[in-house]
Specification:
The chain is α/β, with parallel strands linked by helices and 319 residues long. The chain is built from 13 helices and 9 strands.
Length: 319
Amino acid sequence: MRKKPEAIFKALGDQNRLSVLQVLTNNELAVSELVSVLRMPQSTVSRHLKTLRDAGLVDARHAGTSALYYPLRNQNGKTQELGEQVIRWATDQPLPQPLAHRLQEVLANRRSESRAFFADVCQRWDKMRTDSFGHTFHLEALAALLPHQWTVADVGTGTGYLLPTLAAAFTKVVAVDPVEEMLAAAKQRVPIELRQKVDFRTGSATEMPLDNSTLDLCIASLVLHHEPAPIDALAEFHRTLKNDGILLIVEQHNHQLADFHDLMQDRWWGFDPHELAVSLTNTGFSKVDYKELTTSGPTTAATPQPPGLFLLLARANKP
């Protein structure tokens, strides 16, 4: 709401209020911080802030239990009004050295408090973050780098761990698995508002229920070591991908970890990534890229040691 000029002129009629406004044009500050910078009693600072707020020159937002004050600037792009001109003038004035020095002390104290907090929570920070935001928010952020209009298949989707992220990121997702119970569990995992974007189909990596050249991206995460004929699966991935479509494979390295193998009931004891890359090239893929993946290892003492994981990226090369 437009403030009357007399309210603004009243606010400008005191040098201390001008100092408050000028300091706030440099940083949002709480009342206690303004007290430290201006060397005024808290009651005086609060009184000046009220006058400035009444004039429409400053406002406050809540930050935890505190209120941070800031100058009100023109938000609508229209011709500047008197209040905006006053704030611009205050911004352009050099901050007196004593105020500038004390302001830097306040900001340094903020940084010190922040460092102390993170030093204290360092050992439990990962848990605090995942307890608050879950384990997949970073996957959603990275998926946003890819074209939203893609059609994506999650082959061997299992219980659908990736599906919420994929459904949020892409126009169409095809979830493929040979086990009906797995597909039922995967369907429950997808938020109701996203389920219309996911097509649940019974099939396997070697018999994908998809037409030729359908997919922009095919994901086979920890799938090939369960397949009777992994090379046939590579040919099926190639068939269903569009020309220059992307295949993303996550797999286990060759290993001799019997306890893990028995627990997971794997058919294959992992793969040599370089041999698998050659098989991809022979199947018609190009631009094959290999990367080691970092895993955190077992989360409990009872969990067997798992093998290492690797990633292969390839492009379907079609006439």
